[in-house]
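Hi,

Apologies if this is the wrong queue. I'm a grad student, and the batch job for prolyl oligopeptidase from Trinickia dabaoshanensis produced an output file that my downstream script rejects. I'm not sure whether the problem is my script or the file. Here is the sequence I used:
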Amino acid sequence: MKQNNPLLAVTLLSCLTASSASWSADLPPVAPVRPVENVYFGTPVVDNYRYMENLQDPEVQSWMKGQNDYTRRVLAAIPAREALSQRVESLMGGDLRRMSFTRRGHRLFYQTAAAGDNLLKLAYRDGVSGEEHVLVDPAKLSTDSSRHFALDWYMPSWDGRYVAYGISEGGSEQSVLHVIDVQSGRQLAESIDRTSSCIVSWRSDNRSFFYLRYPKVGPDTPPALREYNAVARVHVLGKNENGDGDVAVFGRGVSPKVDVPEGQAAYVMVSPDSPYAVAVANHNMDNNPNTFYVTRLADIHGADTPWHKIANPEDGVVDVQLHGDRLYAQTGKDAPRFKIVSAPLAHPDLAHAQVVVPEGSNVIDSFALGADGIYLAERAGATFELHRTGFDGKGDATIAMPFAGAIHDLATDEKLPGVMFALHSWTKSPREFAYAPGAAGAVDTGLIPPSKTEADDLQAVETFATSYDGTRVPVSIISKKDIKLDGTHPTIIYGYGSYGLSMDPNYQAAWRAWFEQGGIMTVVHMRGGGEYGDAWHRAGQKQWKINTMFDFLAGAHYMIDHGYTRREYLVANGRSAGGIVMGGALTIDPGLFRVVLDDVGVSDTLRFETEPNGPPNVPEMGSTSTEAGFHGVYSMSAYAHIHDGTQYPAVMFTTGANDPRVSPWHMLKMTARVQAATSSGRPVLLRVDYDAGHGIGSSVKQTADRFADEWAFSLWQTGASAFQPKSH
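Support response: The file is valid. Your script probably expects a header line. Output copied below for reference.
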């Protein structure tokens, strides 16, 4: 194999406007080719870099470091990169931030960061106007500037006296559960590891809770089982402070009498006014249909707990909530846009449950129960509506919104009327609103002040692109208002399209730095997301994932056809499962994009099942264990469809060394393969953050640096004069 030879370097110099001395003098390390062939149902597939999946191999570590060092030298040679980084960081860190509100009576818990803070803290206040008290500051936990800690999750007790919360190091999301006494600010002795993505449900005594914990990992534990089949346990404050000895009450293998399917996690949900508990076997820790069970709280006794199954994934239940003796469930069964049903918890037959909120023209995104009724956030095209209805489904009312946007984080307290929620827009920074029954509409609480970067010079255009099969695909175009349709604008096309997750309006202060360079942001709402409900999601799953890729390309063609940009200014960007879409951007039409930015992306889907987060994703991606599953997974595997001698665009692959969701080897293998295959002479870079994971828990500076690296790289490659390295 030959790659990055002197001839290629000369070709690169001739292709680009300019280059830097370091770019021409140094080349990235070459990855040895060690082919491994697998035959799947008669189809041979060769993997040249299978050995990179052993991330502990010193050779792999050395190659990864050499690649990242090379990337840093290349990026450092871009003249305006440092100024762009400072601008992005100032935009991202210049505002007071508050988010993730939880109500406990009149006490509010939330995450916050003052202007200039790198990391979110845990705080509370008594009432909207109360004084803010910081409970946990992760920035104070680090003693090494090269590593940081982050707040992963939190859950207060029903009386607001205690808060259980998770802390992890280096973006790993490997949470350790702690508990703090809110009144005194005293940290309790609890320190329970293996509690990633933990669901904590406090019992009514406010001194104990149910929580999920992953099994211990031994030297012989396969990677695919290291974060799988977590079980629900019960913990009493002051006892078993490290969690060892806490009794398991639900999960796979806990009781031979209860058939619990395999999955990522099992947990218990309770409500302070209900004598029942619901247990959830969640395959991928998401809001897709899962398996649900119910029992009386008084009957929970370890492995002898008589859990009664009430729903399988085929029943379409995505969320349940308890209200006294009744269960309320959001389900997509015979309702692709979802409906809300209710049944008595003593006999919760969901097949014959009362329909409280029938399926309508909007998509029900989420619901929450207050003392006065049911609150529903509904998707209505590009924006949301907030509805309130009685527990019997009568008296539906639409609550007036101050501006059009997306509703997130419905926060209610079943003992109090009303609701709080965050409202997001492409062009207005988020606000926290509250609604009280009888009011004319929702009012701004003032808890989240407007961003200093907010101005009226931005616009968001909502339109549609036509995909290959005639499907109309929503497209959001965000730009300066005075943008000219002359085809000269560097344009980032962003896409995700998996798990039924929607790309809702979301103000990003950092984007202003891109707009200042004449850039445009475009979000394509592809099949596989949840913009139009369950049917839209399923149309981009498994063997239909090709729809997601072609929808993304349709969005790019729309921007060209309508005069916003041209191929030489197009930048594709996606992260995580959006890496599958980036693979499509690379392999289906390699000449469409000038740049591809693939962040912590899934690229070798044929091998995804072998990593820690692989098995939970089988319902979304499919499995190589069946012939139909293999063909679906093979069609979406970018790594398997890179061909030698192809003129690929400039590419930056990014990963976090501690990523628990998508193993870094995806980006390593793709870097090696594309570097070896490309004939375009354009750079293919690997960017590694050794103090990060999947991006969750990253600091403001870490995120700003990534934006600056990717955007400076893109502006260099799309010809922006200020970003051209000096001639060598």
